[in-house]
Amino acid sequence: MTKRTLLFSYFLIFLFSLSAQTISITTDHVQLVLQVNSQKRLCQTYLGERLSEQTDLSQLSMPQAGLSSSTIRGLEAYPVMGTEDYYEPAFEIRHADGNPTSVLKYQQHSQQDNLTSISLRDEVYPVEVTLYYKTFPQEDVIQQWAEIRHEEKGKVYLGRYASSMLYFEAPNYYLTEFASDWAKEMQMQSGELQFGKKVVDSRLGTRANLMAQPFFEIGLGGPVREEEGTVLMGTLGWTGNFRFTFEVDNQHVLRVVSGINHDASTYLLGKGDVFRTADFFFTLAKGTGEGSRRFQRWMMNHQLRKAKDDRMTLLNNWENTYFDFNEEKLVALLGEAKDLGVDLFLLDDGWFGNKYPRRDDRAGLGDWQVTKDKLPQGIPYLVRKAKENGVAFGIWIEPEMVNPKSELAEKHPDWLIQLPSRDTYYFRNQQVLDLCNPKVQDFVFGVVDGLMKENPEIRFMKWDCNSPITNIYSPYLGEKQGNLYVDYVRGLYRVLDRVQEKYPDLYMMMCSGGGGRSDVTGLRYFTEFWCSDNTDPIERLFIQWGYSQFMPAKAMCAHVTEWNRRASIKFRVDVAFQGKLGFDIGLKDLSTSDRQYCREAIKEYKRLKDVIWSPNLYRLVSPYEGQHCVVQRVDDSKSHSIVFAYDIHPRYGENLPCTRLMGLDPAAKYRVKEICLMPGGQSHLPCHDKVYTGDYLMKVGIKVTSPDDLASHIIELRQE
Ligand code: DGJ
User: Fold this and answer.
1) Contact 584, 319 (CB under 8 A)
2) pLDDT of residue 386
3) What is the whole-number distance in angstroms between the Cα of residue 464 and the centre of ligand 1?
4) pLDDT-based confidence at residue 20 (cuts at 50, 70, 90)
5) What b-and-e string marks burial along 106-125, b requiring 16 or more CB atoms within 10 Å of the CB?
6) Is the model's pTM score more than 0.90?
7) Which residues contact ligand 1 via a Cβ below 6 A?
8) pLDDT above 80: residue 12
9) Of 140, 142, 141, whose CA–CA distance to 131 is shortest?
């Protein structure tokens, strides 16, 4: 295109946008178009693949008028409760005079760099809503949030405050959701959405994602597929209660409403205060494979804390000792960490409490002083010993929680979330501190600060959170009890902001009794997260498959443990190899060759981690579809790739087809080598040490699965 025609088409777009008030929000491949109708209502007129000719926007039609010409039904970008729309609204506000309705009209918008803001106003009540759309063009991710403000005298309550409302029109819609439970995180389940509503939500507060994870995928026009079909992939960045509502209306339009869960959270908003909703992130991709690569790249480029920095392999003592340890045992484990060749030793739960020592999970939580008779020389001694062994030191905390049997609970009962006049319900014998209260925020920050001041060489913290919020009542909030779930998360973020600012070099694992906290905004503060307490490698294949839909490998802690001893150490290590590798196992209980395998695997992992952590993920064979699982990572230059292949329980006489690889350069030649063999072992894969073109590998493929129970193969491809 010449410069003149380019200028002319920009001019046309400009003229067009002036006349029709069209707001186009684009990434490299996705486009969302909003238009203002004659009643000044903001409507979605297009969401799909980016249009090639921007002048075609003039062809887009407004949603049809509803019951009368002055009303609109459907496709309003931020539909309100109580006026024309009959379906689940995004926004509901109860004005000071008790009126629960509003009508939001377009005022103005601005577009600068990658940020679009559109302000809407109720012309009857002084209420303003600003919608924000931030685009990440290369990753094709769009971020949406809203800010709500009013100038009313008296009490104004927000009943609903979604981050996003999107509409789709397709012959059918298939939802994939991620059900969860302790040790059963990210169970992918799919089904067709029929007329009516399907809600996926959480109302657990702190351990918010225990039962449902804040991710979804929707196949538009058919069930989601790995590399085909259009899929909407979305997630809410909020370390608390979330809610996705999928509603198919009477015209078979799908409405997707995403935001903080408003249940039990009618928010009392002060005059002039700004309520910022959570962030919703989405992409529209060709298959979940493309969507996952986009999300992982986006996480690595824009979201994950210290994404560009290295990560440390580690030895954790939790499953090794549980609460039963002393200095001697820990020093021995530090020696094992050195022997293994990991970067860090992580001391888990059980190191604190004196009046009520933390000997089990029934006491001591909240009292963050080292147990003197257990560790007489304190944490500084362990940090020193770690250093002598050439490993960094990390420590477990659970600073938002308290056992009633603790000095903290005795001293500050007013700091606990608990009902004033009812029996208290405990989850894992503990209660949640009231992070709405700034004094509690100071205390929680002080847990990290205290440890760091005493031990500036601590490199890593595992921040656990084992209880949901039970007994929902904040002594601090008084009449604003509806604000609890929201203000709690804001309080948590305030603490984490302070931690991040004061200790920018500290690595932190987000943990919640397994994967009970796993959202993308949490990962702005945490460098990694604990996917599940379930480290049975077979289960982990499914859990990792699930998280890999959105999360980068670098952030997914994967530890080798004793869960499922039927699986060889090689199989267990090879599964953990896909994530951020760690160990939580007694080395002395391993055979010499198993120990040797672990040592060599750690070396290989360190050599290969850049490609293992590459966002270019290709999920080739799904464990959900049979007895095997194969995934592949490719680096950005397409010169280096790793294939991870696992056989779970192959059927008798099963046909084992070649697996076609992906993401390679067809014209390049690759040497294929099976690596990570047991000491003295040999590869039996026919492709081992052979050279193939990328074209062959992607069209014909290679045999990487086997008929053996619980077998695994790690295969490296290098461009010659
Ligand atoms: C739950 C975590 O998921 C475990 O890894 C461990 O840290 C325990 N808490 C400690 O209580």
Assistant:
1) yes
2) 98
3) 7
4) low
5) bbebeeeeeebbbbbbbeeb
6) yes
7) 318, 348-349, 396, 464, 466, 511, 513-514, 530, 533
8) no
9) 142
